Amino acid sequence: MASLSLKNVSKSYGAIEVLRNIDLDIEQGELIVFVGPSGCGKSTLLRMIAGLEKITGGTLEIDGMVVNDVPPAQRGIAMVFQSYALYPHMTVYDNMAFALKLAGKSSAEIDKAVQSAAETLQLSHLLDRLPKALSGGQRQRVAIGRAIVRDPKVFLFDEPLSNLDAALRVATRIEIAQLKESMPESTMVYVTHDQVEAMTLASRIVVLHGGDIEQFGAPLDLYERPANTFVAQFIGSPAMNLLEATVTATGQETSLQMADGGHATVPIASTDGDMGARVKLGVRPEDLTVTEGEDYLVAADVEIVEALGETTVLYFKAQNGDPSLIAKLPGIHRIAKGTTVRLTAVSEKLHLFDGEGRSFLYR
């Protein structure tokens, strides 16, 4: 298996720049997930690694060798696409064996590789079936098996679960996680727009936006220490709330006056130059709690209540006209629509962003 290194990689289509100055070092054995909104360049970046898109600038190395001009078939990669792309007239066995037959492998080598991959993916009892006799999840496992038998240096997954229904997505996501555990030395790069997949599967996450890397790090690092407001709202579901505030005291802790009369003291350092600055206070819905006291962050009128049993999700609008807020409270809370609620949070769970959306922690 192999490491990957992208140095100052860019991609343009004529005058349109899709990716800019991408620098990434991916270690052997990692499962790296590219996430971001539609059009951010994540699939294009994956296709450049595969050799299906030409690199406009910079270098791509696989195991220390520059592969910019190396054909896809010689890069030692295997790709699993969003569509299963199985041959409908071939059995599961023949679909998985096809690439090895083209490579001129012996029957014994092919059978050993297919049987081993089938056992890993729990497909042994399905080897004689045609794709039409399989469920969506089983077809995707066959597509993954077809990649495994090639014993590639790097596995590339391009939104492999997007065609599955909700229940199958969860089941197949678990299967991919188990597959990675059974192949600890395998290097995998995985593209998705689903941040739940990213959080549950990734060793590290690359957050892309507008052709740039916004942040690269471990899932919980991005959740707990987002570099900017984009990452803060993209990672986590529901998205982080951002509240308007003004800095009233600086130092090792920063005091804030909230726009609707609440206040907060955040254990994040600020400088004298921040005094009086308009900033955004970030707080995740799951970190908000209801309070009856005068010490609160924001007061809001409840608009929608979702009673889910294990949690109660409140949607409301701050009284000063801020965008809608969300609170995700554990358990059952009998709060009526139209009720004015005061919300607070533990200071260690608060995030602070400057006027340009950058976290105070990364300035």
Automatic annotation (TrEMBL):
It is found in: Cell inner membrane. Keywords: ATP-binding, Cell inner membrane, Cell membrane, Membrane, Nucleotide-binding, Transport. One of its GO terms (molecular function) is ATP binding. It holds the Pfam family OB_MalK. It comes from the Bacteria. Signal peptide: none annotated. Residues 4-235 form the ABC transporter domain. PROSITE patterns: ABC_TRANSPORTER_1, ABC_TRANSPORTER_2. Its main location: membrane. The keyword Transport applies. GO terms for cellular component: ATP-binding cassette (ABC) transporter complex, substrate-binding subunit-containing; maltose transport complex. It is a peripheral membrane protein. Belongs to the ABC transporter superfamily. This is ABC transporter ATP-binding protein. It comes from Roseibium aggregatum.
